[in-house]
Amino acid sequence: MTRSFEKVGVVGLGTMGAGIAEVFARAGLTVVGVEADHEALGRGRGNLESSTGRALAKGRLSEAEQAEILGRITLTTSLEDLADADLVIEAIPEIMDFKRTLFTELDRICEPSTVLATNTSSLSVTEIAATTGRPGRVVGMHFFNPAPVMKLVEVVHTVVTEDGLAEEVADLARRLGKTPVSVGDRAGFVVNRLLLTYLNHAAVMLENGLATREGIDTAMKLGVGVPMGPFALLDLIGLDTSYEVMCVLFQETRDRRHAPAPILRELVTAGLLGRKSGAGFYNGEAPPTPPAAGKPTVTSVAVLGEGAEEFAARLGDAGFKATTTQAATDATEDADVVVALSHTPVIELAARLPHPRRLVGLHLVGDKLAEVASTVLTSPEATCAVEGLAKIVGRVPVHCKDRAEFVVDALLYPYLNDAVRMHDSGYATMDDIDVAMKLGCGYPAGPFETIDTLGLETVRDGLRALYAEYRDPAFAPAPLLDQLVTAGVRSIRGLS
Ligand code: 3HC
């Protein structure tokens, strides 16, 4: 018989828990929200009021509707009030001991038929289930922040989940207006495994001084079209949560890319947890502003590389003396700056020039972004001038070091590679991974759609370049990708 979920309990009313309670209440279910004490309950009430208040302010909700939603949520400090709930979901901190203690209690209190769910980001659902006398009725129900907005729910089943239960929970997610993706119990599931690995990579890049925090955020937003750059997103998720997810991933994989970037530990230890504490990578909620570009004081520019003619023509229209050249030699002698349009590092080119201080790499990404790469020989004046030139041709400049794949591709390709490996491992289908990344993170396209758009060979070659530069085995192209390129296959999604 199919269960009917009408009364649900939500334990923990932090950002996620309050969001989840709101989602259930909006769908017409009766919700009991539980917090540890009256102070935390007050904060939970505040979270509920501010989230629905936001919708009210935007005219998406009337006052009556807000009152109706909040009226469906009862707040309590007693777990005993969950005894007759059809489903209880926890959203307490990501500490296994806390979860085990809570689930032992819930198992004692709730009816045997009650389904117990965890919103854990990465901890083992199996281990949590094993603390109860009903492991077959314990599942993961993983929402995404902000829960009222993001459309994805990962429904996590374990090897002992009762037959049919994951599908019933998926139906419940649909009733909430969400799209469920059903996954097995593996650290990070689909989204966090891919997303947090990428966010951690961005933090490592920042530590290596490849580009600034604002630069990396701007590059990813403009270059890939993600709704938030990695540091703004880390602040939204919470740096403590992100750090804990990385620790769990590292414990399972021992992959050094999953070792949390030291800057995460430092910020967390300092109490800078992101939005929830008021400051993290950014202070407050101010969106990152694009880095300022200097006014170009140069008059003559030599341009070389693919697309040089068009770029030079644009500069010519803007009043510069712009020439193109194929060889980085004498033809550049008289130029104030030399712009090398390139998607690969330009140091070799610079080293061949009579005036290497004048050479700056420029990687045009999409139609909005220009990555401005200065080598160890480039002068600050030349960098500044080329940033200004990028602006003149209508692009936002992001300054970076002259490293393989610069910023956007260096972050994007390993993420795509991880998705290919995930699919190839049999953990999730390409469709499920694409849907999960689009609905869980608001990405404009899933990783497999992105690979098809960019071209399999481009991604494979980019990964080879990254591997050659950093020698990280994780950057070596996934064997499946390599073989598809060798076989001349043009669409990875065509395989599914
Ligand atoms: N709570 C409730 N509603 C919110 C909200 C919040 N914190 N933030 C935004 N919203 C609502 C707004 O009210 C608005 O609703 P409307 O369309 O009905 O008017 C809508 O979301 C869009 O908001 P804004 O126009 O103010 O802002 P943006 O267009 O910039 O969108 C965003 C904000 C939805 C957060 C968008 O930037 C986004 O999709 N970011 C990516 C978020 C993401 O990746 N989340 C997943 C993180 S991973 C995770 O949670 C898993 C965990 O285990 C770590």
Automatic annotation (TrEMBL):
Residues 7-185 form the 3-hydroxyacyl-CoA dehydrogenase NAD binding domain. Gene3D superfamilies: N-(1-d-carboxylethyl)-l-norvaline Dehydrogenase, domain 2, NAD(P)-binding Rossmann-like Domain. It comes from Streptosporangium saharense. Pfam families: 3HCDH, 3HCDH_N. GO terms for molecular function: 3-hydroxybutyryl-CoA dehydrogenase activity; NAD+ binding. Residues 188-283, 406-488 form the 3-hydroxyacyl-CoA dehydrogenase C-terminal domain. The lineage of its organism: Bacteria, Bacillati, Actinomycetota, Actinomycetes, Streptosporangiales. PANTHER family: 3-HYDROXYACYL-COA DEHYDROGENASE FAMILY PROTEIN, 3-HYDROXYBUTYRYL-COA DEHYDROGENASE. Belongs to the 3-hydroxyacyl-CoA dehydrogenase family. One of its GO terms (biological process) is fatty acid beta-oxidation. This is 3-hydroxybutyryl-CoA dehydrogenase. Keywords: Oxidoreductase.
